[in-house]
C-alpha cells in the first residue's frame, strides 16, 4: 500500500491537520460522521486525546468534535 | 444589524391582528446547544407542557406564546440532521413532514411555520440542518442566535445577504439576553399566515441537480410540489425509510436506482456522501459570502479545555467535581433536607434547639427503664416510668411532625382505628415516601443542570467513554451510577442527560444494582449475622457487596448488549464538545422544576398506590376466623396477615436460594416499599421490634431465620440488593422509560438476574461446604454456563441490521 493510500484520521498525530478524502463503512455511523461536517475535502485538526487514550478531540468546521479512534479509522485522509 | 430592531417596538400581543391568528402552530428546530431551550423558555414562560414523544424516551415540550395564547410553540429535540437514525431525528422529521401518525401520535398535520434556531458563532455546521429544513416546503424563519457573542468576538454577519441566499427571513436574536424575541415571533406568525413555502436558491452542482430533476419526474404527482425536492433527495440517497413510505412501483424504483448508479459512477462515491458533501459545499459558499471572521487565537472554550480535559489533569479534576456533586447532593445538603422531610414532616417532628440536653435526658431515662426492668419492676411501676419519658417540647423549640398531629386529630374526632392506620401508616407514609425525596432531587438537579448547561457533562463523557463503552454503557452513565450509591431515585432521573436512547435504557436498567444508602442496613445485618461481630476476619463482607453491584452492572451490560433489544452497532461516540457557557439561571431553575415535578406526578402515583397496597396486605388478615384489621401491638400479628399468605404462596420460588420460608419472602416483599424495611420486617417477624441491624440479638434471630446457613444469608442479601428496587425507584424507572413494556422488562430482568445470582451463591456455597449435588445445583451450573456463553459469545448477527434497533424500539412500545 503506497504511502498515504490507507492513511486514516486515526494515524494523524496530535496537533496536526489532515484533509478528508473519503469515508469508509456504512449506515448510521457513516451518515452521522458526515452530518457532523466531516465530508470529502474538509480539513480536520486533531487537537487532543482523552486522558485514558481514547476518544480523540478534533476541530472541524470551527467547532470541537470528539470521536473514538475506531470511528476515526473509517475516515481516510490525505 | 440595526435594520431589524425597528419593528420590535410594536406591542407584542393583544392587538386585533394577533387575535385573528386562530391556532397557529410553530415548530422550534435547531442543533443541540444552540440556545433552543433558553429561547423556548423565553417565548412560552410558564405555560409549558413537558411530556414524551409517543413511544420514545425523547422529551416533548409544548407551550403557548406568552403574548398570544393561540400560538402554540413545539420545541423539537435538538438534532444535527434530519437523517432517520436516532429517535430524536425521527421524531423531528416526522413532525415536520406531518407524519405524526408514524410516531404514534394523532395525525395533527404539519406545523404552520418553522423557526430554525441557528448558533451564529458556528454557522457552518448549524446551516446544514437549515438546508434540510428548507427542502421540506414549509414557511421557515431562521433565528440567528447568540448574536451578542458574534459581536463580542468582533465577527460580522451580512444578515440581508444571508436571508437572500437562504430565501427566508433571518432575524438576529440573543435568547440569553432576550433580544429579538418579539420580532422573531412576529415574523414567524406572518410567515405562517401567508403560508408560502420558502424558496431557497441554494442549489447543488448541475450534475446532482439534473439527477434530482429526473427523480422528481419519476415521482410525478405522487407528492405535492412543495415537498418534491425533499422526497427526490431522499430517493436519490436511497433512504429505506422513504422508499418504504412512498411505496413506489418496482419500475419507478429501478428507474431511480439507475439514476443513482449513474451519478455514483460518475462521481466515484455513494449517493449519500455526494448529497451530504454538496450540502456542506453550498453552505461553505454562503458562509464565505456572508461572514467576516476577525482572526483570533484560541477561543475561551479551547483555553478551558486545555486544563479540564488535559491528559494529566483531566481525571483529577473530574474526581474533584464528582466528589463535590456527590457530597453536596447525597451526603450533606440533600440528605439533610430529605431527612428533615422524612423525620419531621412525615415522622415525629423536629426539635430545633436543645437537642443535646434532650438526647442526654432520653439516655438517662432509658437507663432507668432498663434498670427497673432488670430489677423486676412491676407493670404499674414501669407504666409510671413511661410517663416520665422526656418531652422534647421542654428542651427547646419543638414542632410536631405530621404523623403525631394527624394521629391526635383523628383520634380526637373519634375516627375508626383502621382508618387512622390507613391515613397515617398508609397514605401519609406513602406521600412521605414520594415527597421525602424531593429536597434531594432539587439539590441534585440544580447541580446537574448547571454541569449540563455549562458544557461539562459532554466532557465527562469524553473522559469516561473508554471505560464504560467496554460494557455497553456511555461515559455519561458514570453520573447515575455514582448517585445510585446514595439513592436510586435521583440516579434514574439523572439518566436524562444521556443522549443515546439505548445507552439511556441500559443505564436505567442497571444503575440501581449499586447498593444505595437504604441497602446498607441489609448489608450490616448480614455482616453481623455471618461475622457475629468479629470484624477482624469478616471485614470483607461489606466491600464484597459493592463489588457485586459493580460486577452485576458490567455482566448485565455485556449480556444485554448481545440481546436483540440492544443489538446493533456499538453506539457511536461522535459527539460535539459544546462551547462552555455560563448557565442561564432561568434555564437551570426550570429544568430542575420540570424534573422534580414529573417525578412527583408520574413516579409519585405508582409509589403512593403501591404503598397503600402493601399497607393493606400487612395490616389485614384472618385472626381467629374473622377477616379484619390486625392489632399491630399483638405479638407476631404478621403471621395472620394477608402478607404472610402471599409469602407462603411465593416461598417455593426462593427454596433453591436457601430461604424458602414465608418470613424471608415477606421480608423481600416489604423491601419493595423501601429497602430499609427489610431490617424492620425482620424485627417484626422475630419479635425483636426495632432492635436494628447493629443489635447482636437481631443477628442471631436473622441467622436462625435463614437456618443458620451462611450461603443462604449471602444469597438472601445478594437477591435483595440486585432484585427490583424500591417502589420509588420503580416509579422513577416508569417515568424515565416512558413505556410500560420497558419498565416491566427492566424490573423483570433485575429480579430474574438477582434470583440467578442468589441461586448460584447458595448452590455453589453449599457444594463448597460439603453439601450434596442436587437438581438445583445442576440448574445453577446451567445458569452459570448460560451466563458465560452470553458473556463470551461474539455479537450475534440479527437480520435487518442498521435500522433494526430503531424498528425494534418502535415496535416494542407500540
Strand order of the largest sheet of chain A: 4-3-2-1-5
The span between the termini of chain A is 14 Å
**% residues in beta strands of chain A:** 25-35%
Order of helices and strands of chain A: EHEEEHE
Q: Would you count the extended β strands of chain A for me?
A: 5
Main beta sheet of chain B: 7 strands, mixed
**Mean pLDDT level of chain A:** 90
Name the CATH homologous superfamily of one domain in chain B.
P-loop containing nucleotide triphosphate hydrolases
Organism (chain A): Gordonibacter pamelaeae
Protein name (chain A): Ferrous iron transport protein A
GO molecular function (chain A): transition metal ion binding
InterPro entries (chain A): Fe-transptr_FeoA-like, FeoA, FeoA_core_dom, Transcriptional_repressor_C
Tell me about this structure:
The complex is a heterodimer of chains A (78) and B (814). In chain A, a hairpin with a 2-residue loop joins β3 and β4. In chain A, 17% of the residues lie in helices and 35% in strands. The model of chain A has no long low-confidence stretch (mean pLDDT 90). Chain A has 78 residues and is α+β, with helices and mostly antiparallel strands. A 5-stranded antiparallel β-sheet of chain A has the order 4-3-2-1-5. Chain A has one domain (9-77): Ferrous iron transport protein A (FeoA) (SH3 type barrels, Roll). Chain A contains 2 helices and 5 strands, in the order βαβββαβ. Chain A has helices at 27-35, 69-72; strands at residues 17-23, 43-49, 56-60, 63-67, 75-77. Residues 1-21, 101-107 and 800-814 of chain B have low confidence and may be disordered. Among the domains of chain B are: 2-194, P-loop containing nucleotide triphosphate hydrolases (Rossmann fold), CATH 3.40.50; 206-292, Orthogonal Bundle (Helix Hairpins). In chain B, the strands form 4 sheets. A 7-stranded mixed β-sheet of chain B has the order 2-3-4-1-5-6-8, with helices on both faces. In chain B, a hairpin with a 2-residue loop joins β13 (620-623) and β14. Chain B has 814 residues and is α/β, with parallel strands linked by helices. The longest helix of chain B is centred in the C-terminal third of the chain and has 35 residues, at 585-619. Chain B is elongated and about 105 Å long. At the A-B interface, α1, β2 and β4 of A face α4, α12, α13, α21 and β12 of B. β4 (63-67) of chain A pairs antiparallel with β12 (575-576) of chain B. Chain B: GO terms for molecular function: ferrous iron transmembrane transporter activity; GTP binding. Chain B: Residues 1-21 are annotated as: Disordered. Chain B: It is found in: Cell inner membrane.
Amino acid at each position: 500500500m503506497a504511502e498515504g493510500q490507507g492513511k486514516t484520521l486515526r494515524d494523524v498525530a496530535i496537533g496536526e491537520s489532515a484533509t478528508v478524502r473519503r469515508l469508509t463503512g456504512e449506515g448510521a455511523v457513516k451518515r452521522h460522521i458526515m452530518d457532523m461536517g466531516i465530508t470529502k475535502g474538509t480539513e480536520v485538526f486533531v487537537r487532543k486525546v482523552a486522558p485514558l487514550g481514547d476518544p480523540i478531540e478534533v476541530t472541524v468546521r470551527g467547532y470541537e468534535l470528539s470521536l473514538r479512534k475506531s470511528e476515526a479509522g473509517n475516515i481516510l485522509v490525505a | 444589524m440595526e435594520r431589524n430592531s425597528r419593528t420590535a417596538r410594536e406591542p407584542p400581543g393583544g392587538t386585533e391582528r394577533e387575535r385573528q391568528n386562530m391556532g397557529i402552530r410553530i415548530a422550534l428546530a435547531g442543533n443541540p446547544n444552540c440556545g433552543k431551550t433558553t429561547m423556548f423558555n423565553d417565548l412560552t414562560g410558564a405555560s409549558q407542557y413537558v411530556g414524551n414523544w409517543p413511544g420514545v424516551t425523547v422529551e416533548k415540550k409544548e407551550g403557548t406564546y406568552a403574548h398570544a395564547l393561540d400560538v402554540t410553540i413545539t420545541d423539537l429535540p435538538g438534532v444535527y440532521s434530519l437523517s432517520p437514525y436516532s429517535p430524536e431525528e425521527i421524531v423531528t422529521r416526522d413532525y415536520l413532514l406531518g407524519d405524526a401518525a408514524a410516531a404514534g401520535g394523532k395525525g395533527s398535520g404539519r406545523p404552520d411555520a418553522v423557526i430554525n434556531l441557528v448558533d451564529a458563532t458556528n454557522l457552518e455546521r448549524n446551516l446544514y440542518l437549515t438546508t434540510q429544513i428548507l427542502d421540506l416546503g414549509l414557511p421557515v424563519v431562521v433565528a440567528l442566535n447568540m448574536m451578542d457573542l458574534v459581536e463580542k468576538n468582533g465577527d460580522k454577519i451580512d444578515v440581508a445577504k444571508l436571508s437572500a441566499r437562504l430565501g427566508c427571513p433571518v432575524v438576529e436574536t440573543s435568547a440569553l439576553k432576550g433580544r429579538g424575541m418579539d420580532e422573531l415571533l412576529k415574523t414567524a406568525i406572518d410567515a405562517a399566515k401567508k403560508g408560502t413555502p420558502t424558496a431557497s436558491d441554494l442549489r447543488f452542482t448541475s450534475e446532482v441537480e439534473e439527477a434530482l430533476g429526473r427523480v422528481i419526474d419519476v415521482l410525478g404527482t405522487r407528492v405535492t410540489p412543495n415537498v418534491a425536492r425533499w422526497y427526490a433527495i431522499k430517493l436519490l440517497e436511497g433512504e429505506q425509510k422513504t422508499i418504504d413510505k412512498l411505496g413506489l412501483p418496482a419500475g419507478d424504483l429501478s428507474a431511480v436506482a439507475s439514476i443513482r448508479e449513474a451519478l455514483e459512477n460518475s462521481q466515484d462515491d455513494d449517493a449519500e456522501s455526494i448529497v451530504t458533501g454538496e450540502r456542506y459545499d453550498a453552505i461553505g459558499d454562503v458562509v464565505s459570502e456572508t461572514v467576516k471572521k476577525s482572526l483570533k487565537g484560541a477561543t475561551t472554550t479551547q483555553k478551558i479545555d486545555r486544563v479540564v480535559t488535559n491528559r494529566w489533569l483531566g481525571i483529577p479534576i473530574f474526581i474533584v467535581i464528582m466528589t463535590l456533586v456527590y457530597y453536596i447532593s447525597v451526603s450533606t445538603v440533600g440528605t439533610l433536607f430529605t431527612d428533615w422531610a422524612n423525620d419531621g414532616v412525615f415522622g415525629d417532628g423536629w426539635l430545633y434547639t436543645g437537642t443535646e440536653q434532650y438526647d442526654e435526658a432520653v439516655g438517662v431515662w432509658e437507663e432507668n427503664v432498663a434498670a427497673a426492668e432488670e430489677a423486676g419492676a412491676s407493670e404499674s411501676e414501669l407504666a409510671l416510668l413511661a410517663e416520665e419519658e422526656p418531652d422534647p417540647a421542654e428542651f427547646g423549640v419543638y414542632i410536631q411532625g405530621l404523623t403525631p398531629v394527624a394521629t391526635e386529630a383523628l383520634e380526637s374526632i373519634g375516627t375508626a382505628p383502621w382508618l387512622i392506620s390507613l391515613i397515617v401508616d398508609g397514605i401519609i407514609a406513602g406521600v412521605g415516601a414520594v415527597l421525602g425525596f424531593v429536597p434531594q432531587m432539587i439539590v441534585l438537579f440544580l447541580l446537574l443542570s448547571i454541569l449540563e448547561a455549562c458544557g461539562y457533562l459532554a466532557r465527562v463523557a469524553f473522559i469516561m467513554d473508554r471505560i464504560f463503552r467496554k460494557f455497553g454503557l456511555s461515559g455519561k452513565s458514570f453520573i447515575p451510577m455514582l448517585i445510585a450509591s446514595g439513592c436510586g431515585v435521583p440516579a434514574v432521573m439523572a439518566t436524562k442527560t444521556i443522549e443515546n436512547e439505548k445507552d439511556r435504557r441500559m443505564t436505567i436498567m442497571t444503575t440501581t444494582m449499586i447498593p444505595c444508602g437504604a441497602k446498607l442496613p441489609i448489608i450490616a445485618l448480614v455482616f453481623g449475622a455471618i461475622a457475629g461481630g468479629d470484624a477482624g476476619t469478616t471485614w470483607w463482607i461489606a466491600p464484597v457487596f459493592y463489588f457485586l453491584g459493580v460486577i452485576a452492572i458490567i455482566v448485565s451490560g455485556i449480556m444485554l448488549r448481545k440481546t436483540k433489544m440492544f443489538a446493533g452497532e456499538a453506539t457511536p461516540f461522535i459527539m460535539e464538545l459544546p462551547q462552555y457557557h455560563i448557565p442561564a439561571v432561568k434555564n437551570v431553575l426550570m429544568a430542575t422544576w420540570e424534573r422534580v415535578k414529573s417525578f412527583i406526578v408520574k413516579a409519585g402515583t405508582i409509589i403512593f398506590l403501591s404503598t397503600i397496597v402493601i399497607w393493606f396486605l400487612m395490616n389485614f388478615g384472618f385472626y381467629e376466623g374473622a377477616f379484619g384489621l390486625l392489632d399491630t401491638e399483638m405479638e407476631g400479628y404478621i403471621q395472620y396477615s394477608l402478607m404472610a399468605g402471599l409469602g407462603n404462596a411465593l416461598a417455593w420460588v426462593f427454596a433453591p436460594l436457601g430461604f424458602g420460608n414465608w418470613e424471608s419472602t415477606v421480608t423481600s416483599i416489604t423491601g419493595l416499599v423501601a429497602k430499609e424495611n427489610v431490617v424492620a420486617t425482620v424485627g417484626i417477624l422475630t419479635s425483636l421490634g426495632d432492635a436494628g441491624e447493629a443489635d447482636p440479638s437481631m443477628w442471631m434471630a436473622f441467622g436462625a431465620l435463614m437456618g443458620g446457613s451462611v450461603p443462604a444469608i449471602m444469597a438472601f442479601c445478594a437477591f435483595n440488593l440486585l432484585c427490583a428496587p424500591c417502589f420509588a425507584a420503580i416509579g422513577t424507572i416508569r417515568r424515565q422509560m416512558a413505556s410500560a413494556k420497558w419498565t416491566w422488562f427492566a424490573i423483570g430482568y433485575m429480579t430474574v438476574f438477582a434470583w440467578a445470582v442468589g441461586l448460584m451463591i447458595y448452590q455453589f456455597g453449599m457444594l463448597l461446604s460439603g453439601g450434596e449435588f442436587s437438581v438445583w445445583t445442576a440448574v445453577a451450573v446451567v445458569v452459570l454456563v448460560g451466563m458465560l456463553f452470553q458473556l463470551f459469545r461474539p455479537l450475534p448477527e440479527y437480520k435487518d441490521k442498521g435500522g433494526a434497533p430503531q424498528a425494534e424500539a418502535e415496535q416494542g412500545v407500540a
